[in-house]
Amino acid sequence: MQIKKRELTFWEKIYLPEIFRGVWITSVHFFRNLAIHTAHRFGLLKNVRAGVTFQYPENPRPLFPRLRTRHRLTVREEGTPRCVGCMLCETVCPAKCITIVAGEHPDPNVEKYPVRFDIDLGVCVYCGYCVEVCPEDAIRMDTEILDVAAYSRAEMKLDMHELMNPQLRKPVKECTLKFPHKCAIHGGELRGDWRFVYGKNPEQIREEGWKEIQELSGKEH
Amino acid sequence: MMADLAIKLGLIGIFIAGFVLNVGGLHAWVERKQSALMQDRIGANRAFIILPWRWAAPINWLLRPLNVLGLFHPVADAVKMFTKEDFIPPKGDRFLHTLAPFVSMFFALAAFAGIPFGDRLVLGERVIELQIAKIDIALLYIFAMLSLGVYGVILAGFASKSNYALLGSLRASAQMISYEIALGISIIGVILIYGTLDMQEMVRAQGKLLFGFLPMWGIFLQPVAFFIFMAAALAETKRIPFDLPEGESEIIGYFVEYSGMKFGIFFMVDFIETVMVACLMTTLFFGGWQVPYLYPDGFHFPWGGVIPVNSLVYVLAGVASFTVKVLFFCWLFMTVRWTLPRFRYDQLMTLGWKVLFPISLVNVVLTALAVLVYKVVI
Asked: In this predicted model, what pLDDT tens digit does every residue of B113-129 receive, in sequence order?
């Protein structure tokens, strides 16, 4: 392809008028913004913006709703994750940054839940496949958290405490999850009990669940 | 004798320490804020001082405008510059490396001695010329000082023992030679018209009227010389669009091996030279401390009105007029600096030798003929 250069006109060649034009443009910006800034100081013209700057930590830039930001796990009303441990996200993840250890949920309607759910943000490519693939709407990327930087690779790894509670930041001091999970805060030991969540024994939950299933299936047939 | 010395020191204190250095230092702030406003940004506003105690609330209230305007940024710059490591290249010349920024700074400041910033002030029996050094050839003195300032630049490149710095200073000296010729020749027209090299006399001559209503400012008598002088003077300040000696952003300049306050001094010299050039433009082409139609006894308007003015007010109005004009030119240079891109090296040489130099020569010849005709005819 041949690129044709535009010939400069006479007035552009003598350079001085173009300098005046450039200085005129920048001066117009300067005095307009100066006037607006001064008016802002006196509480006037608040709806006119003088700069495109966002004062970042105080006033973050508005984000587009479809933007993929840090992940979170959605939570049921009783405080357990909606995740059913189907492993679809772990399977689809192209960066292999998700680690799930599934456990048996006492309620037969749920069947499974994650005992452990880790995302390594240092590996994650923010492709959003995990959100797309999840059948339970259990993982979302809508926290609007952009500052995921950390001082070490270990700090880039998120476990269930932070994923279920996006307000939490490293270092997480105490465990807030009541259901049985492999708690990263306590060195991976299994902590929590279903009794703290439902106030019932797991056996009781299981029986009630089966009853519910039988009722539903009886009605259907 | 002692009183004269005290007056001279007072003038130095007022003009150089009070005006030039402050305006030069504030350029660091103006540069940030003005570029921000020109580019629809807000500009640096994160250096602020807020005292944490309850009793300090009034002080905080007083500091608030400074905080909002970001005026502590130059202070933060200075603190940073003074606390940084002062690095001298191991193979560099320690003495010359340290001397270079001071040479630049000294000659930049010494040049201000020739600038008149007000008419003579009469206090009782004593007559004080508002010019630090009353020299008959003040213009030549200023240009000599400005040319000597280039030695600081060359020394910096040479003493760093760095090829990049040396190339930068070579560019600087080539640029200075090609511009100072145009700079010098462009003012010959002004000298021809006013018939003097004394800056104070030159400013007085600009108080007369042309055709009965137009002040005899240099810009009206020598418009071509004005533009040549402005282009050459911008090159003299080593700032964009003629910042080939420095090229902070990509081509490395003569002060690449400097750190800390020595670098800061080179930076300040740029700003001070901008003020210097603004002073020269004001004095040579915009009537210096002259206020249009204001004479020692008051305003004489061409349409006939006369307003008498106190002699002290007259002098102060002159100083204020000079200050306003200088600040305007500082603003203009800053606007040009943030509007135009840098010249390529060959373009710069072409502009200097093939455009500005011939035009300034033609201007001198035409002016000389005009002055001759004027003197013969009238």
From this structure: 999 998 888 887 888 88
